């Protein structure tokens, strides 16, 4: 009876795991339906026109943008543009740029829930900051409202159209609220302005490709693997009770009654799991909405689990109803057929695992970079950066007619300069394309040949990053000398070019009416070359930017050696532009307190600092989800592989119990009795390792080796368990 209960508990555990997979299945289906809703937003609206803008040269971009927005304003229309956020498998989704009269905006709901709320969009459009969003792009700092999202689903963000068209005005637009005549007139104006055929604005050249997402394929694989494992486990439960079937039938029981006795608890458990699975989906979906439509899908997940359970019982029922009582009593089963079937199943699941490992190995570089980026940002997530600085009484400074505000900010910074935890940190990447543009437009007389990163480090932060830095250099920087740390990997010719470019670039931003720092009076430079030994964090937030660089050009930045442009930049906002950074919120609060700011005439500017984590928590969430997802994939497949091998071991032990009992009685060792099946597993693992090596899949080799060891341990423990009791039981029955 104990064995029966143990087997039943194992089957219920597998049913619970299958319920979890059904939760993932329905959650993924809902996520895909939601994605389609976003992709199709505006597609089938009668009063919405599609406009395709393409091949617009850089000199025409602003003209086309103005033409569009003026027409939208004049006609009280609403325009939006959708742009993909997809960056491999780690960050997927869409951002939508909007502009215009929200009363003309198409309705957008999903599962009886309003997704794009007109009041929220109006609030977004009226906000002063261009970076304001609904939903979270990279971080929540600029977000003024939420957009419903599914866990493990794509990300969706609404922003101002100005931001979406910042890089290019080209793309597909949707205009709602224009009648056909007005829209035709707009198209004609665009054609005239760009000298393109008007049909170019009405026809898309882009072909949509439909491919199954990796996540979809994995979840389908999970379902198939789970069904296979449950079929095998149910079959094993039947084999363990097979002798009882023969006895019960001879006692007058029907096969139906015996089958019900064996599996009634499993069937009951499946029905009990319906509300549990539904609640699990409701809680872990991240949707946070209790509409009838959504609750129906939650219940559907539990019903799918029940349906799969009945499907899994079909092969067992067919076997149960076809075995003769005499064969059942003696435990006679078609061993070859069962061995072959289970071996095929084992190979299929192992193949799925190898395929998963191979794919994840292909993404390993991306995952490693994501992990490194996550780790790097974690170290600075408590730093505080300037988020907001209002004009106050300094409207003239904001209109670039006065430098009073910049002088006040400089004095404020001087008061806390070199204090522990108060830094200047700013980084900029000068890519190959930027350098080429300088050459094309002859922006400088001397231009570096190679791309580089330009860092601003205050002396105290430079000392923190480079502990062995000469203190004399820091003192010189404090006295107004522009001290640069440059990598000694530059050639002699390149060193000359870089030094001349630095001087030319710095002095091009100086004029007679500027704030006079020690540097602007004396114009002293010092170039020190260092051997690249460590990796410096670039503070990069864009996917194409490097996380680290070992050879930045570093300016030891002080209040005495900056030029006027850099002085203005001390009041720059947002993560990418801000220069002043505090190590923690306590310091930021201390130095941005109204009483402290009043000393420097900044109390009216309401300076606000926020933690870096609020700028990058969106990135962190995406990276964690990506890494977590691949861990779940490998974990579930590993459980299925090990469970399948255990099933084969149970079958082997059950079908060879008589022969092995005699061998054990005669003194055979475990190796002599079970050597064949152990050899088969070892050979299978070696073949898997060789295949992984052939595919150059490091994760596959590691996982196969570890899983092989686990499988051999499971095999040894199970096959040697209760060996003596098995002998006694077998002799008693015979």
Automatic annotation (TrEMBL):
KW rRNA processing (keyword) present: no
Protein name per UniProt: ABC transporter permease
Species of origin: Lachnobacterium bovis DSM 14045
Keyword terms: Membrane, Transmembrane, Transmembrane helix
Residue ranges of the TM segments: 7-27, 217-240, 261-282, 294-318, 338-361, 629-652, 673-692
Domain of life: Bacteria
Protein's UniProt keywords contain Membrane: yes
